[in-house]
Amino acid sequence: MNKIRVTIWNEYHHEKKEGKARDLYPNGMHMTLAEKLADDGLEIRVATLDMPEHGLTDEVLNSTDVLLWWGHCRHDDVEDRIAAKVARRVKDGMGLVALHSAHYSKPFRLLMGTDCNLRWRNWGERGRVWTVNPTHPIAKGIPSSFMLEAEEMYGEFFNIPNPDDLIFVTWWEGGEVFRGGCTFTRGLGKIFYFHPGHETCPSYHNDTVIKVIRNGIDWANPAGYQFENPGHFRDPDEPIVNKDV
Ligand code: ZN
């Protein structure tokens, strides 16, 4: 079986500075994710904001089956041209797993068509993630609920279009709820949004969170499908009696 070609994109900003983010993710969240997700089924590359073209050259994008995106405070530093290219590739079939504050990234907002605002509070509170769609492939092997011991609260109202599937709903210690795991389809591309992963919180050291992301990669993988001759005239396969219209 072909390996799924995954590119993990990170703005890689907070983890370069001394403090909790670097303590938790010393080589950057992209490297932690690459290590935790590594298995025989994946071929993983990483890309970061400060690389030329943000590490997302045509060559990289055209050979990526599923793109993971983590961004937080430097969304505006992503060039519009590159964001548009990412969105275009998703519509052509590349899968996208949008992590944590990628809800507010340029590519995700382009693909959603709404402002994707939400309510937030960064007090490192407990959040219980409920699996509300247990037969969905992304929920495979995931318990009926699991706890995030300390995470940034993201809550409703979350201004996204109605998702195709809602898979996880998170309850927060402070009382809010959040549609924290949901899917969309844009063109041929499958998109999974999953909220855990604030840079000073340990969620990417949580095996269940990693398992959800791994399932998301499997689900979003286009599996080599190529749209045949999109938008062009096509000769018929069967003989047609021309009605001379
Ligand atoms: Zn955050």
Task: Describe this structure as you would to a colleague.
This protein has 245 residues and is of the alpha/beta class. It has a domain of 155 residues: Rossmann fold, CATH 3.40.50.880. Helix content is 21%, strand content 29%. The protein is built from six helices and nine strands, in the order E-H-H-E-H-E-H-E-H-E-E-E-E-E-H. The protein has a nine-stranded mixed sheet with strand order 2-1-3-4-9-8-7-5-6. Strand 3, helix 4 and strand 4 form a beta-alpha-beta unit. Helix 4 crosses helix 5. The longest helix is centred in the last third of the chain and has 14 residues. The structure holds zinc ion. The site of zinc ion has 5 residues, from loops.
Please give the order of strands in the largest beta sheet. 2-1-3-4-9-8-7-5-6
Q: For the CA atoms, what is the radius of gyration? A: 19 Å
Mean pLDDT: 95
Strand content: 25-35%
CATH class term of the domain at 4-116 and 179-220: Alpha Beta
**Count of β-strands:** 9
Give me the strand/helix succession: EHHEHEHEHEEEEEH
How many helices? 6
Kindly report the name of the CATH homologous superfamily of the domain at 4-116 and 179-220.
Answer: Class I glutamine amidotransferase (GATase) domain
Task: Report how far the terminal alpha carbons are from each other.
Answer: 48 Å
Task: Please give the share of residues in helix.
Answer: 10-25%
Structural class: alpha/beta
Q: CATH architecture of the domain at 4-116 and 179-220, please?
A: 3-Layer(aba) Sandwich
CATH topology group of the domain at 4-116 and 179-220: Rossmann fold
What overall geometry do the principal axes of the alpha carbons give? globular
The molecules bound to the chains, other than polymers, are:
zinc ion
**Biggest sheet overview:** 9 strands, mixed
